[in-house]
Design brief:
Number of domains: 2
Number of strands: 18
Distance between the termini: 49 Å
Largest sheet: 7 strands, parallel
CATH class of the largest domain: Alpha Beta
Radius of gyration: 20 Å
Structural class: alpha/beta
CATH superfamily of the largest domain: Dihydrodipicolinate Reductase, domain 2
Helix content: 25-40%
Strand content: 25-35%
Shape: globular
Amino acid sequence: MKKILVLGLGAQGLAAARKLDEDPNVSEVICAGRNQAAVDSVVSLLKKGRSVIADANDKDSIVAAAEGVDLILNALPLEHTKNVLDAALEVGVNYQDYAATTSLHEDWVESIRIQYDVYGPKFAAIGKLALVGTGSAPGLICVATRDAIRYVDRCDTIYNYIWEGVEAKRFLPFWWSPVTALHDMSQKAYAFVDGELIRTPAFGLPVNRKFEEWDEEITFREHCHDEPIHYSFNAEKYLKGAKNAYFKYAGPGMDFAGPLYRVGLLSHEKEWVGGVEVAPFDVVLKHIPPAPKYREEIAEILDEGLVTDSGCMVIQVFGEKDGKNVRVETHVSAPGLVESFEKEGITAEMYLTGQGGYLFSKLFINDRFDQVGLISSDMLSMEQVDTYFEYAKEIGITLETKVTEE
């Protein structure tokens, strides 16, 4: 029986905590945060929950909360990752998070490199594992990419496509953390091109795709995300020598943020407006509603009505098999908003990210990891990939893969 500490009780942390609470091999779910009322509100939804007050800005506070646990699940904003990593090392416990940190270096790529090169050996030295990037994207999409790689002998190019097509009649541009979403959208993207990691224009390099699931053609654009960075580090060993990797994104959130970016309203640089110095990014963020996470507010949104309840997660791998050029196309199927609410009382984003993250936790809980050190979600063994999707099938997340000659 395992004890799990959940840090960060937003939409994704709550979804993961609820799944951990249902797991028969978990004895206790310790929920930690600075606000007693907020922590207690989450624990009230759990059978095995316990409240702990912890300040993510204070490593010693995290250490105190983590004593005696088997795994720290970090669902906090990225700036807190260093404190949580250091606390996990001090306590001597396994670690898991949802996305690559920005807290170890001012340059994001170097921050990720430090995770691999500095924290990896530290966790290996104590015989523990740090698993990073384990939500839906990065996370589920990375494991699906790893699965698609099995169908080629050599990989040339990887495309990760995500269309978040769920749109409510209520103004709600983001179903996940608005500050993280807007931060990603406020900067140039990354792509792995000809074996080099490069910057690409935010909202640029549009690609039109029409997949079998729907009739309309969707325009996907560049978006600053973790996947191409991790793939660039792991191309040779885990991705059959891939030379190119792109992350393409579409949906109402991108449609909303694109014009803001183009007129400078996602800039972090302060400017004087009417005698007041402000950063445009902060003004925009102030007016964005938080992502819904509780059953009652999601029910209100559904009662008001939806514009669309669509979306996709598609992986395309171009490479060579038995001397022939092939395309591998994998579609990830998962419940939409209405079905997610009917099943679990949560949003589709919570279902994919929070519960997708829980599936990685379940690998820990069931002792399916033999690695130590630090790995990202595209570095699972093929046996772990198979187990992950066995778990995923139990909650209605499945893969459909088609291989065609080019």
